Amino acid sequence: PPPRLADLVFDDDASVKRKPRDSLTFEEFSFSLTDATGAITFVSCVRFDAPLSNQQGAEIRCEPVAFCLLYRRSDARAAMRTACVELYRLYLSKHPRAFRVLLATLAHLPLPSPDERVDLRISFVDEDGSMAPLREISVRSSRLLRAGLRSVDDAQAWRAFLSSLAPDNLVRVVELALLERPLLVCASSTPSWFLDCLRAVLYPLHWALPCVDRVPRDIGHDLVSGVVPLLAACRLGPGAAPARNRCFSEPVDHSVVVVDLDSKEIDFGLKLHASA
User: Fold this and answer.
1) Tens digit of pLDDT for each residue in 169-189?
2) 192-202 and 155-163 are packed helices; what angle lies between their axes, rounded to 10 degrees?
3) Cα separation of 150 and 154, whole Å?
4) DSSP structure string for 132-201
5) What are phi and psi of 95, to 5 degrees?
6) Model confidence over 27-49: pLDDT tens digits?
7) How many CA atoms are closer than 13 Å to the CA of 237, on its beta-carbon side?
8) DSSP 8-state symbol, 75
9) d(CA 62, CA 47)
10) Which helix (H) or strand (E) holds 269?
């Protein structure tokens, strides 16, 4: 794997305490890595906290687990996102062999050209020929999916996006993205889905600058406050301080616009206030 991949996936302690009902709630996100030659590797991940053993009580000790798929083609993002979620479901169903068989099968299939429409449908079958108790995977091709964007068929994500901010503020966020302002979107759980929907709204225009769906807390301040405008999402820390002070170990630079989905507010920063 690429160096320091784990630093971008995990941003907390090796083991944490969770309430039993929250122990297997998963978080889905993606990002891209660029090497010294300019080649881009795309990464799709599902991260969750798995119980260390059979435990009882109000809180149980868990360890972070992540399934990550690395790929070169941006138009494969929707399929890789679906595959990551299925990996998580296979983990819960105790059928890890089913996905190994799937990967071995796909490895022998020729890759389609980037502009070719491909509808993906996968069914899991046991050795005796009967249908396995696993959900069928279906990914229909579209221009959005081939551009690596979230499909408009994802009703849950789009309902959350449209209700996340007041209409005027939502339009302002789209405007800021079109102006290539540095944007940091934060909430109590990492709002990667918001960035997916925002990039789809911009289509057929494309956010050509770096985009990180889940910014690690330890390196987030330096990453977001750089000279290159960034589109990013992060999880808010506890407390009642403004969101700008709870994203990372240090306050976010005032050149960055901070969108707090929990309070439905936007902190436009000093530069925008000065130009108003």
Assistant:
1) 999 999 999 999 999 999 988
2) 90
3) 7
4) PSSPPEEE---HHHHTT---TT-HHHHHHHHHSS-HHHHHHHHHHHHTT--EEEEESS--HHHHHHHHHH
5) -120, 55
6) 888 777 777 777 778 888 888 87
7) 19
8) G
9) 12
10) helix 269-275
